[in-house]
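hiii so my PI (J.) wants the whole complex modelled not just the main chain, which honestly fair. so below is everything: two entries, each one labled with what it is. i double checked the lines twice but i was tired so who knows lol
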Amino acid sequence: MSAKKALTKHKDNFLKYRYLLKELVVKNIKLQYRNSVLGMFWTFLQPLLTMIVLSMVFSFVFGKGSDGVIVNYPVYLLSGRLLYDFFTQSTKRAMRSIRSNASIIKKVYVPKYIYPLSQVLSTFVTFLISLSVLAVVIAFFNIIGKDPVTITFNIVWAIVPVVILFIFCMGVGMFLATLNVFFKDVENFYDVITLLLFYMVPIVYSIDRLGIPQGSWQLRALKLNPLYGIIEMFRAAVLHGNEFTAFFSLHQLYYTVAAAVVTFIIGFVVFYKNQDKFILHI
Amino acid sequence: MKDYAIEVNHVSMLFHLNKERVDNAKEYFIRLVTRKLSYTEFWALKDVSFKVEKGDRVGIMGFNGAGKSTLLKTIAGVLKPTMGSVRVSGVIAPMLELGAGFDMNYSGKENIYLYGATMGFSRKFIEEKYDEIVDFAELGEFIDAPLKSYSSGMKSRLGFAIATAVKPDVLILDEVLSVGDAAFKDKSEQRILDMMEDGVTVLFVSHSTDRVRKICNKAIILTKGQIVANGEVNEICDMYTEMVNSK
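here's the output for the full assembly
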């Protein structure tokens, strides 16, 4: 079969099952808060409450909350935390998606990538909704006049890191889903990894305040993590709109795009090469 | 040249059987190092070839472990054969296990859409068939209740109603004719007989020669992953009865 023919076959197959994809995304979102009193409102409440807790704890640890580097500590923390949450939630759910749908995969033919993809997509939708919390918090600080955040048109650049993050999550998700089929330990192991990641990425702190000398290997190692660049670019657009060019580095943009695309390709190839074996292990 | 609904060409299926199931990294690495990662190779299907003409109803018989379910799964596209290929023309409705795509927290109504989507139907198609499905499954007001409150009979009725809502070209039946109570059993059998009259191709797995004689016009006997007989239904059923008696 020629490559072009194979590609059209995949496209037709995707079109046939795109309604299933939509159904699964809706299901994931609907069932998340079904039977809870506040329902969808948790999407707003959960990040808001964790932001308040973390701001209280860490401004206590670090002394005063905001300084020259961080314009507004709660907003700084919330923006990092929302992106981090999207990453960990989507990859964790994608990781479990093949195993948790084992009963279907064993009995009916379904393109298997639908499952990790639907998990990343539904987490993405809740992430987009939860971004409104960020708007509310920024508005709150601007109204009370304490540590106001200047919002400019540069905020549209925030779309760029979000798209990069989505591609990155999809790659990591497919890779973990494959690994999890063969080794169930991955789930436990990944919990620890995400905890480590929470402290490796500047969410509660600013990397400049760590006191690591410029050019040291530790600093390079921290910046090697694509999540670092993605979160920094997002903050440049949201928190530093008035001095955007000083904060938004093109170098970071190229690096994160390359890292996300490579991760996606690796995840996709690993998933694709092993998907016929899934059924024998789940 | 005849028009075939199903073509199975030299299909072989190899399974690696472990003495114990290795699904965690520790076990895997210990076995890798101590070289105990050996499998027993097991061919569930060995060079199976047959063709089914459009409108034929083929009974597949064999003892437990003969490879019947594996064969159905390769035809349904769930399992990819180790060697060989399967070609199916037209819409295929696998009824390997009814209700495998259900979500227990979803209501009956939501599950109709979800299950339909899992079978590859479009939203428009399910909307058109929705009333017919609810009607056939006899769920009435329960349709808005979550599935976890359903009895197992209700679940399989709903599964059967959705799976047969489509007019498939090929129907795969794995002894699922026994759905629900006696009244529903008659109704579901009637529906399958109606489909057959419309010229649907059927693959039917059963141990009961009576059933196979009633439904099928052709039959196959599988033994240890190989086809030992393939032909007219009465002839093959007689052979199978003889096999059972001599065992």
